[in-house]
Amino acid sequence: MLSLSASFRSLTLASATVPIQAVRAMATKAAGSSTATSTRAKKTDLTLKATKDAKTTKTTKTIKEASNKKIPTEATKSKKAEPVKPKKIAPLELPKRPSSPWTLFFKEHLDKVKASGKTVVPVQETVNASAAWKQLTPDQKQVYEDRYRANMEDFKRQMEQRLQELTPAEFGLENSRRRALRATGKKNLPSLKDPNAPKRPLSSFFRFVQEQRAAGEFASLPVKERTRSFADAWAKVPESEKARYAEQARNALAEYKAAKAAYEAERQ
C-alpha cells in the first residue's frame, strides 16, 4: 500500500508535464504490482499453514501410537525370561535301590518305638537312633552290612531283567527325563544303558589284542607291561596281516552303523 501511495504522489507531481494516458498506464502498472505482491503473500501464508497442520497431525499420530504401544513391565520381562519347562515324562517302573545299612537300622529303631506305643517324633528319634548306631559293635553293624549286600545283589538281578524287557523307545523317554532332571540340578540320575543296543566294534589293533589274549600271550605280565607288550607286538605285525585286521574292522563298523540307525529309529 505504501508503494501505491508513493506512486500516486509521483503521478500528482508529474501531472503537469506527463500526459493523462501515461499517468493512467503508470497507475495501472503500480496497482497490478501491488495485487501480485498481495497474492504471493497469501500463497505463502497458506503454505505455512498447511505445513504447520501437517506437522501437528503427524505429532498427534505419533503420540497416539506411543500411547497404544505396550510398554514392557518388570513382570512381563521376567515372564519372557523364564525358560520353557520341559514336558513331564512319567518315570519307568524300575526296581528300587536297597536301603543302606544305617537306613535299615533306623527303620528297625522306628518300628520298636511304634511298637512301644510312644509317639514318634522324627527329629528326636533320628538323634536317638544315631546315638544307638554309634554304640553298636563292628559285628553288630556287620549284620546290617550283610543284609545290604544281599539286597543289592537282588536289586542288580531284578534291574538286569527289567532292562532286558524295555524297548528302545522306553529307553529314549526315560533317558530324556533323566537328562531334564540333571539339567535342573538333580544328582545320582545316570542314563540307563540298553543291554540290547548295538555295540561299537573293535578297531584293528584291539582285534589283534583280543586274539593275543585268547592265545594267552603276555598273561603273566602286569597290566601296564602287558599293554606295552601288545603295542610292541602290533608294531612288528606285517602290513599284509594288518590289512586283514583293518578289513575285518571296516566290515564290522559298516554293520554296526546300519544296526545303530535301525535302533535309533525305534527310539523315536
TrEMBL record:
Q: Where's the DNA-binding part?
A: 95-163, 198-264
Q: Which terms in the Gene Ontology molecular function aspect does this entry carry?
A: DNA binding
Task: Enumerate the UniProt keywords alphabetically.
Answer: DNA-binding, Nucleus, Signal
Q: Give the protein name, as stated in the record.
A: HMG box domain-containing protein
The signal peptide here is 1-16
Task: Give yes or no: UniProt keyword Signal.
Answer: yes
Which domain of life does the UniProt lineage start with?
Answer: Eukaryota
Q: Which GO terms describe its cellular component?
A: nucleus
